[in-house]
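Good morning N.,

You mentioned wanting to compare the apo and holo forms, so I went ahead and generated the holo version with WQD. This is what I fed in:
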Amino acid sequence: MKIIVTGGAGFIGSHTVVDLLENGFEPIIVDDFRNSKPFILDNIKKILNRDFKSYDIDCGDVDRLRVVFEKEKPDGIIHFAADKAVNESVIDPLKYYHNNITTLVNVLKVVALFPIKSFVFSSSCTVYGVPKKVPVSEKSPIQPAFSPYGFTKQVGEQILKDFAQSNPKTAISLLRYFNPIGAHPSGLIGELPLGVPNNLIPFITQTAIGIRKSLTVNGDDYETPDGTCIRDYIHVVDLASAHVLALKNSKKQKEPLVVNIGTGKGSSVLEVINSFEKVNGVKLNYSVGPRRGGDAPSVYADNSLVKKMLGWENKFNLDDALKHAWQWEKNLAEQ
Ligand code: WQD
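and this is what came out, ligand included:
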């Protein structure tokens, strides 16, 4: 089966392309490399010694995407292409409304013209806002988004629920990621934060390798055991496999499948730092600073639904992800 992977050269997209190849699918990457670099494609090929097609286009360009669909006649699509930096979305909301919503609508305009069996969408736990109760299940209330980024994910989900009603031939899955981290065990692909990282793990690895002088822990006065925020960190390889299982599960369903993709285990910032130092044998230079606006004290998944519906569960733990993330950072330094 041919699967279009928009944003397939990105962090989660590239790992999903590897999983698709391992599972006998024929992935076709559509990516304009605004958030990636061409060497990632070469490295994906090296991991399995397998080739695949890619198109260097903006997936939001309806005419050019339609030509790709006409030529490739795909059976399914995984739509990763979007921007995901919370604080950047506050500074530049229109960039996010264009790239995360207009692009999605344009992709769906093309999907509606072809017999596409399955559409898998990259959503986020950010749709829950600051949850009042943890663990967070799919029935937890969708609260007002605390960033334009989060709002684009809420709107994206609604667009797809409405699209599903008018296009029952396409089975739709909305995967709500918790905190994707780590890198492929081969050390050949991983997160490529262009510029100053927003997220914790790339900031840790860049501090450990000396790109950043020190890490600031954003507050240690939260209502949590050690005062720092708790998150559900999921290895990117485990996250990738959830996409392929969602594709395989493309039963005809009126309602989209909406599932949390998280380990169900919460880890605090200090626990992550201690785990990183222990598993990699490095000392991290960090200090505690003020809280970061918008941070929820604790967010982690109730992942019972994805286990039931897709038979998915994470194979890697936090230590594995931090070991792989560090290996990737060291390999990047040698590039
Ligand atoms: C985690 C914790 C920080 C950096 C975001 C998006 C979410 C998803 C994942 C896309 C927080 C603390 C961080 C640092 C720190 N992205 N931290 N020092 O905010 O949970 O989620 O990324 O889907 O949608 O909202 O992840 O990694 O930014 O922060 O102390 O230098 O680490 O304050 O408590 P977050 P994060």
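The pocket of WQD is lined by residues 84, 86, 124, 126, 177, 179, 198-200, 203, 215-218, 229, 231, 269, 292, 295 (CB under 6 Å).

Happy to go through it together on a call whenever suits you.

Best,
F.
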